[in-house]
Amino acid sequence: MEWLTAASQPSAIQLVALVLSAVVTVDVVRRFTRHRIERQGYSLPPGPTPFPLLGSALSVNAQEPWLTYTAWRAKYGDVMHVRLLDIDVIVLNSQSAAIELLEKRSQLYSDRPFIATVEPYGHGANFAFARYGPHWRLCRRIVHQTFRAEAALAFRPMQLRRARQIVINIIDDPSEYPFHFSTFASAMAMSSVYDYEPKPRDDPMVKLVNDFLDASFAGLSPEMAVLVKAFPFLLSVPEWIPGLSRVRREANKSYNLGIAAMETPYQWLQKRMEAKEDIVTDTMVFDHTQRMENLDSSCRAEYEKALKQTSLTIFLGATQTTSGTLMTFALAMVKNPRIWKRAQAEIDAVIGTDRLPEYEDRPSLPYVDAIVRESLRWQPVGPMGIPHAVVSDDIYKGYYIPRGTTVFANIWAMSRDESRYPDPDAFIPEKFLDSEGNLNLDNPADFVFGFGRRICPGRHTADASVWSGIVTMLATLDFNAAKDVNGNDIEFEAKFANGIAHHPVPFPCNITPRAHITRESLEQSLGT
Ligand code: HEM
């Protein structure tokens, strides 16, 4: 851990000793209480034998843990127990196991585990980490009212308009394509929540939220979470102890950025409302501010807190997931030109080249939808989702699942199920078509958005965003390999980032408008 090297040597040794003693104490208590249930004949689900203190922490790929768990599936099965330091983890390696526990027993499995760094690093405002209870329920109700399937239809014209803006931005500045995808995703979130249309570049509100994400990222790493859990005093070490005070400084910076990211766009919209400006009525904050007016003051304070937190959470949940999926799509197109050519042939045959795709065209474009499904499956942006936690002891198929266990749906393993997806590492949209060329019933949206009461509440909006981005780009752009100085295609191996979301890092490519597409015609389609 980087910050330990900055500490003076004796402090670092003391710190390690303290971590070990905390882990030993928790281990002894756990063994004592568990022994009682195991005596009744129930054992934990199968899994690797844990080493003393560390459990299996050193055997798991720290950057891409889903690869280890997926490899272990053959040996330990669909419901697997792994101990990581003092944390009990259950990994669900199949969609059916995730449905059995996270959906059918959702009253037990909808909590989130306690993560000691969430609150100090400003993610207490992020309701995706909220414990299962009344505050989470209120946030969830707010988001549901704005983003449920029928309500989310209101955002479609904006989503299509912003998708066309991606193409204009690519024509203007093709090398910045990852940035144009992020702008699209941020605009979708900011418009639907605050009626705020970010600038294509250097937008101050988008920068604020991204600065918060950058500042909080290191704090949410499992290593930092374990340390802060074992030694909460690290969050109050005075400035004059160099090295050790770094955790407090980083946490404070992240916390303050979190407050600013939550308050600034919220207050911006409140001012517009006070000035009686014209605001799109479906905007989440506008709609709920009006709903709040009928509440008494104590309920209103609670509601306003939930509304602010929900607004920030939408932005955090919507941006890197949506833009990451578009990065995956673009990578797959550059690697597989036959696929975008087949999709263009479908689009040209169905709607011609005189206009751009609209939502009403979707049922007539099954191959495009197959590409959307394959983009969600091939590199799921959340390969392990967000951890759930169990609120009380449970028995499943004769196995004991202790209260407080962290439960992961291994979405990556589901995407690599070879009985369902032969050759799972290849990008092949045809797997979602029947022999007549119609879409079949297999939809990875059934697992990539998570499970049960914590299932992604933005999934309808995400689906519409991803579809509008993909269909618009397929109708207007060619995706070719970049050339070297001799005119040869540049070969490259795809690499992936694993931060908030799993997505390809920028790769060499040559994305250009199709022959019949001009910037002017696109601008006309925006009404500008
Ligand atoms: C391709 C795009 C997206 C994918 C693959 C995705 C996936 C996920 C997953 C796997 C979870 C965890 C579910 C669980 O705990 O079982 C989640 C949670 C969440 N997502 Fe998404 N998401 C996407 C886009 C969005 C969008 C566009 C929004 C907002 C409009 C959003 C808002 C949220 C929120 C608020 C949560 C936390 C829910 C809770 O804890 O109750 N997501 N998402």
UniProtKB/TrEMBL annotation:
PROSITE patterns, alphabetized: CYTOCHROME_P450 (PS00086)
Organism: Boletus edulis BED1
One Pfam assignment: p450
An example Gene Ontology molecular-function term: iron ion binding
Keyword Heme: yes
Family: Belongs to the cytochrome P450 family.
Pathway the protein takes part in: Secondary metabolite biosynthesis
UniProt-recorded name of the protein: Cytochrome P450
Cofactor: heme
Sites where the protein binds heme: C456
InterPro entries reported for this sequence: Cyt_P450 (IPR001128), Cyt_P450_CS (IPR017972), Cyt_P450_E_grp-I (IPR002401), Cyt_P450_sf (IPR036396), Cytochrome_P450_fung (IPR050364)
Keywords: Heme, Iron, Metal-binding, Monooxygenase, Oxidoreductase
CDD domains given in the database record: CYP64-like
